[in-house]
Amino acid sequence: MGELDKLKQELKKVNEKAAKVKDLAVEKRAEFGRKVNEEKQAILAEIAKAERRLLDVEADPIDVTAWSGVNESMPEFYSTELGSKHPLMTELDKVIDIYQLMGFDVMDSRQLDDEFHMFDSLNFAKEHPARDGYDTFRTEENLIPPAHTSTMEHRALKKYKYKLERGEPIAVVIPGRVYRNEDVDATHEHTFYQCEGMFVSKDCTLGNMLGVLREFFERYYEQKLEIRTQPGYFPFTEPSVELLIEKPKSLGGKKGDWLEMLGCGMTHPNVLKMAGIDPTVYHGFAWGGGIDRLVMLKYGLNDVRNFESGNLNFLREFN
Asked: What angle do CA 192, 170, 233 make, to 5 degrees?
């Protein structure tokens, strides 16, 4: 077994150790998570060094600033082929169009955020394991590449609170790129896209939320669909549910086939309070789901890594 393979085996063991945090007493989780994360970061650093050693350091570097016009003397790796829109961006535009037709505003997410917006404003407990480094990336300045688009909920509530004062509901969707400290495989990526949705008014209900989501999936998959829910847990909603849709016929679905699509629920009163909204007067619902998975199901794709790979053969299939 080579050096790189041995390091990857060590990384796998550390990840298995990290999964045991849920079995520890609450007061021991933070220290355990810190130590495990230190081990993991040390191994990741060694893996990076080993991968660099495998590269051919003698290879001529490519001058990315060089002119790329047609020239007989140019090397073959310079391409004059026109690019195209990434399939995720094409489908994300379709997702946003559907919500805008239902009256939702659109708000962009962020690439970096802070502890307050990522966790505190969303009712995460101080000892919640998602705050630890083995689950969520952090920069040296302790900023966080968002692990979910929910990090924008507090800002959205404050930005559109004026609508409630005018007797209008808050209705907003928030698309964006998110990051997770994941072991990458065919169904897991450390970088992917989500779309968050929020609605707040004096009289909205869980039934209203299910109606919005059913309408969205029927428009996106262009057919009538049955939906159902099962219990879930998210710190920022109560009650929380997971939404399943009937598997579309375009994906080979038949009666009794179900697909879990996203998490959702009624906005937790603490989230409304943090934004200065009285939860005894107003109610809300929220949801969030992955765009990558939505697109994979639509086109029958089986490897999420293709979206971030830069594989031109894969991308050309969508031209």
From this structure: 50
Separation of alpha carbons 271 and 124, rounded Å: 10
Q: Specify the pLDDT at position 25.
A: 79
Arithmetic mean of pLDDT, 248-277: 88
Tokens of 256: 């009794």
Tokens 């969707």 locate to: 173
User: What are 214's two structure tokens?
Assistant: 């059913």
For residues 228 and 25, give the distance between their C-alpha atoms in angstroms, rounded to a whole number.
35
Of the segments 96-105, 181-190, 291-300, which one has the largest average pLDDT value?
Answer: 96-105
User: 46: Cβ–Cβ under 8 A, 6 or more apart, which residues?
Assistant: 7
174 backbone φψ class: left, alpha, beta (φ>0; ψ -120 to 50)? beta
Question: 167 — phi, psi (to 5°)?
Answer: 85, 15
Burial class (CB in 10 A: 0-12, 13-18, 19+), 212: buried
Tell me the mean pLDDT in the region 144-166. 93
For the whole model, what pTM was predicted? Answer: 0.71
Provide the 3-class DSSP secondary structure of residue 254: coil
Q: Where are the alpha helices (DSSP H) in 77-180?
A: 87-101, 115-118, 153-159, 161-165
Lowest mean pLDDT among 28-37, 147-156, 165-174, 194-203: 28-37
191-201: strand order across its sheet? 105-106, 170-179, 191-201, 283-290, 258-267, 237-246, 227-231
Residue 57: predicted pLDDT: 47
pLDDT of 302 over the 90 cut: no
Residue 277 near residue 200 (C-beta atoms within 8 A): yes
- Determine contact, residues 160/170, Cβ cutoff 8 Å: yes
